[in-house]
Amino acid sequence: MDYKRFDDKIIARIDRTEEVHEKLKEIALKENIKLASVYGLGATDDFTIGLFSVANKDYKEKTFTGEFEILSIIGSISTLDGKYYPHLHISASDGEGKVFGGHMKKARISVTCELTINIIDGVVERQKDPETGINIYKFD
User: Cβ contacts of residue 108 below 8 Å, gap of 6+?
Assistant: First the structure.
């Protein structure tokens, strides 16, 4: 992984065999990012998505292995109890053009991944929503 910062933007490259969440967290902690939007693309050979069930208040997970193009990683960085909190979604296509996507639990890079991180000057905390069970933005 390598990256370069340009004022409030970071352009990052995540390399083969590296996991996206791990490297994004490494960048965010090193750069003291409390709030940002994130988007990217690349290729993966092992990724897990989740679909949140409001009724059960948990995620149904599905893992995919093989050759996949990452069409989109999109999401945000915020904080929960003052600590780093990512929220990312992924869509990826197989060799037949079938697209799979959802809440990104993990994604191991098979070729490369290019991320853009748009840092926002501020902090937005999250809090657990008792009705749904997810961590939502909290505005004072």
Answer: 17, 18, 19, 20, 44, 45, 46, 47
